[in-house]
């Protein structure tokens, strides 16, 4: 499946140093995995984690997208991580704290994989358009923990302090055709809070949610998949619009609401997403 067309409802971080978690991920119903060499790995374990991960990736992760998060290129590990990822059996490399397209040029010289960018600093948000437009860019990952730290903002259920940053990155991702996945929900045992944050991100246009624990997977998969009601509505909108066109009209009405060509495009995307999710399960 084309990397841009596939679902990214659930994107689970796994510390590259944790063999048990690396193994468990092969059994989880996740759309993508971020194999982490950055924040989830202690400095003393960084080099060993690179090797552990390389070995783990020689075994199949099925149709889950495999993304490796390296350390920043301004750290002692970053350049070696990037070269190592080039040799790993994975789909993409993820660079933390991206603030400019020039940083992606630097990464592209070391690693030929498609690039995903962590969007997690104020400067990164302000340069989101040039980052998204980089020719190697495939996806953005919101780093809302680092962003909150940089902004000195508080965590609130409505995420009001995050909105300018989330909005800038969403606009950039949609304008440039990148995938964009939302930040993590730290309280991994709080299913209700996670659901509310997933629903908010989905309503804003996020493609999915980054996760830190297997207990979060089902909530994200449900929130970011078209519901049965949405699929039924999309089918009825398409049928009604085709009948209207055949009768010489231009605007159909379904459930008391107008349906024009643009709504049909959205309806077709909904059905395509549902089909892509079903195909993952095959
Ligand atoms: C949060 C954790 C440290 C909790 O770990 P643990 O105490 O081991 O949890 P459990 O005992 O409940 O685990 C049950 C089983 O699930 C497996 N497990 C746990 N976490 C994962 C995982 N992430 N992926 C795969 N499997 C996982 C355990 O191995 C147990 O398996 P079994 O033995 O078969 O029962 C831990 O969940 C964890 O380390 N999570 C990831 C943390 C992480 O990656 N953090 C960095 C990313 S967040 C970030 O940096 C975002 C961004 O940059 C920003 O700025 O916002
Ligand atoms: Mg971060």
From TrEMBL:
Mg(2+) binds at residues 120, 146. Keywords: Hydrolase, Magnesium, Metal-binding. Residues 9-214 form the HpcH/HpaI aldolase/citrate lyase domain. It is an enzyme of class 3 (hydrolase). Substrate binds at residues 69, 120. GO terms for molecular function: hydrolase activity; magnesium ion binding. Its cofactor is Mg(2+). InterPro entries: Aldolase/citrate-lyase_domain, Citrate_lyase_beta/mcl1/mcl2, Pyrv/PenolPyrv_kinase-like_dom, Pyrv_kinase-like_dom_sf. Its EC number is 3.1.2.-. GO terms for biological process: oxaloacetate metabolic process. It holds the Pfam family HpcH_HpaI. Belongs to the HpcH/HpaI aldolase family. This is (3S)-malyl-CoA thioesterase. It comes from Pelagimonas phthalicica.
């Amino acid at each position: 499946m084309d990397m841009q067309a596939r679902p990214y409802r659930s994107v689970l971080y796994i510390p590259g140093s944790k063999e048990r978690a690396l193994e468990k991920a092969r059994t989880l119903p996740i759309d993508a995995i971020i194999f982490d060499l950055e924040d989830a790995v202690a400095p003393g374990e960084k080099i060993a984690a690179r090797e552990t991960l390389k070995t783990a990736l020689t075994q199949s992760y099925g149709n889950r997208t495999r993304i490796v998060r390296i350390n920043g290129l301004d750290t002692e590990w970053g350049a070696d991580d990037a070269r190592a990822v080039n040799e790993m059996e994975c789909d993409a490399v993820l660079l933390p704290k991206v603030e400019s397209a020039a940083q992606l040029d630097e990464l592209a010289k070391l690693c030929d994989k498609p690039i995903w960018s962590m969007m997690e600093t104020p400067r990164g948000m302000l340069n989101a358009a040039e980052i998204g437009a980089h020719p190697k860019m495939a996806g953005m990952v919101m780093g809302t923990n680092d962003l909150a730290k940089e902004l000195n903002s508080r965590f609130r259920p409505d995420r009001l302090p995050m909105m300018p940053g989330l909005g800038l990155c969403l606009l950039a991702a949609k304008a440039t055709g990148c995938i964009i996945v939302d930040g993590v929900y730290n309280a991994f045992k709080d299913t209700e809070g996670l659901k509310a944050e997933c629903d908010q991100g989905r309503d804003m246009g996020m493609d999915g949610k980054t996760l830190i624990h297997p207990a979060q997977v089902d909530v994200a998969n449900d929130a970011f998949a078209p519901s049965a009601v949405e699929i039924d509505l999309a089918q009825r909108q398409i049928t009604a619009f085709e009948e209207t066109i055949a009768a010489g009209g231009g605007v159909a009405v379904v459930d008391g609401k107008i349906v024009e060509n643009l709504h049909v495009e959205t309806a077709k995307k909904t059905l395509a997403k549902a089909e892509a999710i079903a195909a993952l399960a095959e």
